[in-house]
């Protein structure tokens, strides 16, 4: 999949108003009834970067993107895209932003080619050009073989690629990606990551949402962590991870009654607190260096604590959250069931 021949207009945005910020948001608020889904968010996304908005279900990620894309009214606060006020200039903003939805917005009964052609026409592209853009995009996203199949026969990964392709028709300098890889298998996920990196190499700015720390880690230059509509942290992925150590040692004790002993041992060996999981007998130990795991395991054996399973892993979003907010990722339950296609 190559996107090198596909250049966004001008190889990058020409900032209006002399700003090098692609997105500038201050005090953004969206209220649904009594519920402040977005509760005073500030964001600065620099031109040419991949900026990640990381948060659990119901944090307000999609709502934020939808306001910035003019798909939802901004209740309070101000948002600018390349210096252009979003609320006052929806038509200009729609030229500047390509939106890829969390739920692919393609027509099931049409083929991939027909969908791209239709989207092009709807966006005012002339007939012959609409046909050539569609062919170009199908090639760029590796969808040539499936070009004339109806979308109903597409896999989740193919749908995501088509959805992303559709958002690039007008070659916008800023792309919003809402959970671009949720529900994709690891290989397809990796391909999507490469595609996103390619967009940025070509001069685009990308604002993406994700629930996965590893995705933010792989892709984003900077990340804002949001929770209950508020920004709780911002920084590079490395800065966020430092809040919880480089890696974690995940332990399951044979006897949950030995947890207090294990906690003592960890304190003694590392001088830090393990994170107790709600699951009985399970604890996660933040580690500055992965090889400290051995020290903890040896000390646990000397203390007579027996262990059923052990692994060393990167910190999860849950752990970052716990470290940043003091509570677990407790997104809205009704939104937990995600469309996995
Ligand atoms: N149109 C709506 N009407 C009422 N409430 C809404 C609406 N859209 C979103 N919400 C609520 O606003 C909150 C934020 O939702 P949002 O979709 O922005 O979360 P999210 O971070 O994108 O979550 P997910 O990871 O599940 O996609 C949730 O509590 C959700 O139920
Ligand atoms: Mg969402």
UniProtKB/TrEMBL annotation:
GO cellular component annotations, sorted alphabetically? plasma membrane
> GO BP, one example?
doxorubicin transport
Q: Which residues form a coiled coil?
A: none
Keyword Heme applies: no
Pfam families the UniProt entry points to: ABC_tran, DrrA1-3_C
The ABC transporter domain is annotated at 23-253
* Main subcellular location of this protein, as a coarse class: membrane
Q: Name one GO molecular function term.
A: ATP binding
Task: Could you list this entry's UniProt keywords, alphabetically sorted.
Answer: Antibiotic resistance, ATP-binding, Cell membrane, Membrane, Nucleotide-binding, Translocase, Transport
| Compartments (UniProt record) | Cell membrane
Membrane topology recorded in Swiss-Prot or TrEMBL: Peripheral membrane protein
State the family it belongs to. Answer: Belongs to the ABC transporter superfamily. Drug exporter-1 (DrugE1) (TC 3.A.1.105) family.
Tell me the protein's name. Answer: ATP-binding cassette domain-containing protein
């Amino acid at each position: 999949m190559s996107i090198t021949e596909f250049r966004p207009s001008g190889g990058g945005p020409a900032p209006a108003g002399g700003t090098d910020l692609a997105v500038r948001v201050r005090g953004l608020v969206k209220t649904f009834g009594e519920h402040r889904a977005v509760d005073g968010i500030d964001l600065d996304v620099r031109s040419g970067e991949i900026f990640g908005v990381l948060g659990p279900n119901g944090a307000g990620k999609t709502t934020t993107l939808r306001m910035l894309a003019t798909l939802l009214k901004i209740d309070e606060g101000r948002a600018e895209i390349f210096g252009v006020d979003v609320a006052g200039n929806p038509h200009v903003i729609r030229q500047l932003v390509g939106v890829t939805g969390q739920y692919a917005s393609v027509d099931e009964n049409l083929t991939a080619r027909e969908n791209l052609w239709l989207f092009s026409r709807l966006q005012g592209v002339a007939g012959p050009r609409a046909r050539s853009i569609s062919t170009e995009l199908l090639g760029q996203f590796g969808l040539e073989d499936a070009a004339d199949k109806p979308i109903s026969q597409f896999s989740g990964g193919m749908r995501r690629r088509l959805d992303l392709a559709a958002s690039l028709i007008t070659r916008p300098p800023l792309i919003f990606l809402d959970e671009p890889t949720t529900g994709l298998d690891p290989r397809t996920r990796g391909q999507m990551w490469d595609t996103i990196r390619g967009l940025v190499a070509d001069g685009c700015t990308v604002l993406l949402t994700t629930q996965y720390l590893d995705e933010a880690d792989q892709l984003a230059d900077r990340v804002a962590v949001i929770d209950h509509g508020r920004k709780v942290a911002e920084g590079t992925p490395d800065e966020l991870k430092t809040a919880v150590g480089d890696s974690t040692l995940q332990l399951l004790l044979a006897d949950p009654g030995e947890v207090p002993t294990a906690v003592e041992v960890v304190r003694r060996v590392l001088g830090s607190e393990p994170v107790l999981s709600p699951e009985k007998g399970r604890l996660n130990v933040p580690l500055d260096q992965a090889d400290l795991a051995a020290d903890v395991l040896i000390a646990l054996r000397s203390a007579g604590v027996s262990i059923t399973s052990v692994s060393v892993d990167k910190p999860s979003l849950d752990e970052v959250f716990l470290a940043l907010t003091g509570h677990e990722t407790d997104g809205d339950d009704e939104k937990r069931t995600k469309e996995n296609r």
